[in-house]
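User:
I study polymers; will you set down one protein's sequence and backbone structure tokens?

Assistant:
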Amino acid sequence: MPQNSVTAAVTMNNRYSTGLLLAMLATCLYAMKGVLVKLIYQLGVDSVSVMALRMFFSLPIYLFIGLWLWRKTPMAGKQMRQNGLACASIGIFGYYLATYLDLQGLNFISSQLAGLVSFSYPTFVLLLNWLIFRKPITATMLSTLVLTYIGILLLFGHEFSVAGQKVGVGTLLALGSALSFAFYMIFSKVIMAKISSGLFTCIAMSAAGICIIIHFVLSGSYQTLVLTWPVLLLSFGMAIGCTVAPSFLLSEAINRIGSNQTAILGSLGPVVTAIMAVTILAEPFSLYHLLGMVFVVLATAGVVFWPPRSKHTP
């Protein structure tokens, strides 16, 4: 085999492995959000205020990093003029809407079920990629999604039998969040072919953050918000650990391995959420929870140990 071919193959494998690591780390950080939100809810803060507090801390960081990248990156001004509106639209309709629906859903269902349902967005990513961009769905991808949904249905059936109709409402809200986030995933890949992943993240998340703050002001939630140190510390932790850091990690993972592979690795999220929910929130952990986690772990392992063989990752 020619030396150039060997070097190219090694580089591609390293790029794929790094992308997998970034995607898994981003997923784990995002998965902590549900538990932190539940803790803030216990302090008497409503969902709109939680959303706003999270952005009050993270928005200045996105603006600062965006300005730094704009001054550092050649042609950044031209890239922003050509793609800025598209980046902002993806942030608003993909991230802002997904966040709102997700936090509303947590009012009705446990963080474990919310994690399982919200992290079902890989299904929507694969289907939308197939419908819009005609990207193939491989046998490995399909099997991982089947395993994931078996786990979701097991836990949904268990909670529905215990809590009744409100579980259905919360699950629908979480599914809406997953669909919205799927749009963020697939269209971010398209835009990042024209603009750097860091600059895209800053524009998209800044646009989402501005919408969230406007929503907070118009809703009047600030009138009943009581700020305490525990609320501020939890909000700060959620802003840095569950918003800023994973958003950059996720964008770079999509840039390296594609939206399909990144999305499927999101199946790891419910496992992290379940572990934290049981240890921190003392949520019940039954055989249904265990089986759901097992199916999700198997699904994620399929992506890690059987990467795509094609030259270009879909």
Q: What stands out?
A: Confidence is low (pLDDT under 50) at residues 310-314. The chain is about 80% helix and 0% strand. Residues 147 and 295 are 5 Å apart (CA to CA).
